[in-house]
Description:
Radius of gyration: 25 Å
Largest sheet: 8 strands, mixed
CATH superfamily of the largest domain: CoaB-like
Number of helices: 13
CATH class of the largest domain: Alpha Beta
Structural class: alpha/beta
Amino acid sequence: MDKTINQRILLGICGGIAAYKSAELVRLLRKQGCEVKVVMTSSAMQFVSALTFQALSGNPVATLLLNAEEENAMGHINLARWADKIIIAPATANIMAKFSHGLADDLLSTIYLVATCPVYIAPAMNQAMWNKAITQENFQHLKSHGVKFIGPEQGSQACGEIGFGRMAEAKDIFLSLVQSSAEPGLLQNINIIISAGPTREPLDPVRYISNRSSGKMGYALAEAAKNAGANVTLISGPVILPVPENIRCIKVETAEEMHHAVISRADMHDIYIGAAAVADYSPVTVSRSKIKKQHNDSFIKMQKTKDILTDVATLGDRPSFVVGFAAETDDLEHYAIDKLKRKNLDMIAANWVGKEKGGFESDENALQVYWNCGKKTLKMTDKKLLAEQLISLIAEKMDEKNTV
């Protein structure tokens, strides 16, 4: 079950030009199934109207500490008790100082003092304010009290200066909030090996044959598995993504190199997830010098590459759970189930490519997941959230297999 659905998020908005980003944050949270209520300071309403957030959230916007229309006139307590999580975005230096020193002279600062749920802060201020010693002291003080910070980021600011103080983008805040709903010990101490990205099969010192895989799905799976408590080894083809923290990464380029990197380590792992888009063919010969353009047609003789999924699944001491991927342009279910059975897999995650949304290079995707006598649809969403859903499903089905 997706734990982000029906999450109750209280969004506090302070005065600053970054308040416009919070509208997108509300939209993303609502799209994911969260219920959102908004609290605005008087300064925030100078930048964005309360009506905007009322329309986006579907709930009245709270602005007053003492509201006679509240049934018991204790809006700060009611809102704090209602929320599963509180996010302040943008958070000014002023609100951080209030929180840090326990001041409560408006609705938002009072809610913070009453709150018992997790509190997140996305700072937004001038770089000089952020770097000021007292702000950094408040930052460290709040962290010591369990407040989680998202950002700030470095870059150009509305004032024209450059430095730390930019509010994180709405999408990054959204992901931080919903990913924190993942079950942390789901794969505690399980060893997982994941292959990701494309391979490159060289033709000469200049050219190679490859595909459109960006590695985003495989890297998202590696991070989701790590967050679920697993020990992760990532075998990565050439991509431009940063390696997530606390993940061992082996960089490879060709299909042959990826095959060796996976097979030589597979027997030391409990789960293998083959998310890489490995080339099916490679050139028989590689020219030592650049191939010149010819007047006539040119032909390249190709040979099949080794099948990593099949070889992992047929190892004598194979991982106890083997997951494949299938990217298809037509007849997705037929080809996915055929691959599941033919390669002796425990599970296969299939997705469409060449469509308007999802697939290679996109930040979003949807999956049709199949296993023996079962299937599940994972709807179109950000690949990081999709990865969490797939990791949860893998853990569930592996547990079922091991208890039969």
